Amino acid sequence: MAIVKLQQLAIARSGDKGNISNIGIMARSRTIYLYLCEALTAEVVKAYFKEVAFGTVTRYMLPNLNAFNFVLEDSLGGGGTETLITDAQGKVYGAGLLHLKMDIPSELLDVAYMTES
Amino acid sequence: MDKQSVIRIANAQGFWGDSALGPRQILAEEQIDYITFDYLAEVSMSILQKQRMQNPDMGYAQDFVNMIKKVMPVCKERGIKIVANAAGVNATACLNNTKNALKELGLFGTKIAIVEGDDILGQLDQLIKNGQELKNMESGKALKSVLQKVTSANVYIGARPIVEALNKGADIVITGRVSDPSLTLAPLVYEFKWSMDDYDRLAAGTIMGHLLECGTQATGGNYTDWKKVSGFANMGFPIVEAQAGGSFVLTKVKNTGGLVTIATATSQLLYEISDPENYLGPDCIADFTSIQLTQEGENRVAFSNIKGKPPTSNYKVSISYEKGYKILSTLCVSGPDAIEKANLMYNMVFARLSMHGIDIPEQDRFLEIFGTNVLYKGLVPTNPQPHEVLVRIGAKGPDAKSLNVLGSEIAPLITSGPPGITGFAGGRARAKAIVGYWPALIEKTKVNTTVWVEEI
Does the distance separating the beta carbons of B377 and A22 come in below 8 Å? Predict the structure, then answer.
């Protein structure tokens, strides 16, 4: 096993709909996608965002794009127009999720993106 | 690809306030058939309603008129058509000012179409009376509970009236609130004579619109692997090259910066889509899990196999309402003990407000200490002793006057608080109205759209 950040395995884009944030995650390869299907569950994401996301977290799968869309309810301090928090639209939640540390099987290291920015 | 059977659509504005270099870049470098301008975000209509209340000649995207002055001579010469959701809540003013601009340019013979019917603010009482509860899609509450405070109400209408405008010969189509992808879908329905029950093609057009609607976010902007992107200053705006069958290529303006790869395209595909199998639009439901992508060439990604389903019987409505006020002030604080100092300042401000006779309940008080993982709260380890932080102190409440007192108690922290506070610029903060967002649904049969065309 080896510990990497999700950023080495995936890219992200996030945004909002009212008080709900959307985090899109695309795996860097099919092999990684299949691993993330098991490892990056809605429960893992909910636990990771426990200080900001208070509602249901739903994971949608897009196997055709090696991607997932996570929908985090009640996660933007009241929503884009109402809250005083800086990231009222969840623009950086995607990048935040990419900081998640994952203990991956060693064979996946070959396909992980190692030039971490 | 057979050039004759391809329609090329470029987006020149991804939001109200996007770079004015977009349209210039597109016209300098590209042969295209349509340019879309997307101005309206969720809260835009409320801001525009306020502007209109203060000045009856305002309430639309005024940037658009300036842009038209610059692009229309070339567009007219080359037969490029424009579709823009620039009318906001004041189609008449938008039309008149656009007409005047075209007259000044001597562009006689230009046809401008206006699409209306999205603005239902004046019909809310009647609609509620007729059984449309306009329940908040997040909270489930009926609109009745905030009806007196509503400031705007606009339906996300679909492609149909834009198609009608193009059928009437419009060179420029100006709409109010329409679903963003409709700006792109409508020209394709018009050009390819797509049937409005050909849901696979409508879904393809909707996905093209979804890719274009945020401008350079589809072409390498806001991309995780940003170090692989070059030419940021001249980011290429996106273009779709559509075929009659619904397959298309996403590319960008040539000789520009940016990057169009499966990864940058997918980044935008995944943007704010909720359930990807059921992306709800006014004209169809698009299935993002059906899309097949291929890197067809440098900065060219081909899309195929897109599937769609019939739409629901409802339109989405975006309603805004007055929800009290908010105020926010910022100060910079140096270490040592920057976090401790920031907490002291926060306590001082609210204690002083109490001395003024203003008690703000705990849940309405706000403190963010920037530099302590405000953006990544709980996600990464925090530096316990940062050398500097930005303190953001604020509050919400029903009364602007009380909140303004908070604004007056920020600067005094510099002389009466702990040492090392600086960066107080721009004067006292003032309370601003909070625009509450109320997403709802309305039966399609209750909404009437109209299209009128004027020739200069």
Answer: no
